[in-house]
Amino acid sequence: MSVLDNWDQWKDFLGDRLNQAQHEGMNENVVSDVAYQVGEYLAQQVEPKNEQERVLAELWKVADEGEQHAIANMMVKLVRNEG
Q1: Which superkingdom does the taxonomy of this entry point to (predicted)?
Q2: Helix H segments across 1-83?
């Protein structure tokens, strides 16, 4: 089972990676850039596995680059606030 199959598992996975990055000293700008790159990769290469991912994918497709960065940053805030 992939972490992409379940929304809560996906958020937990992202939260764990965020905590690891911060523990290793990654600054906010780098975290933001990595979040954007992950979002871009997922949008281009990975079929959404659940309803929430499908919504994010659709939003990503219609967003310009600045809005995509905002979506990525909101995902970082979401997993940070839940962790």
Answers
A1: Bacteria
A2: 7-23, 28-45, 51-62, 65-82
What are the C-alpha distances in Å from 29 to residues 5, 10, 34?
29, 22, 9
The b-or-e profile of 32-42 (16+ CB within 10 A means b, else e) is eebbbeebeeb
Tokens 């905590």, residue located: 19
Phi and psi dihedrals of 25, rounded to 5?
A: 90, 15
What is the predicted pLDDT for the residue at 3? Answer: 66
- Report all structural domains of the chain as residue ranges with CATH numbers, in order of start: 3-82 (1.10.760.20)
Per-residue model confidence as pLDDT tens digits over 5-57: 778 888 888 888 888 888 889 888 888 888 898 889 888 888 998 899 899 99
Residue type, 11: K
pLDDT of residue 1: 60
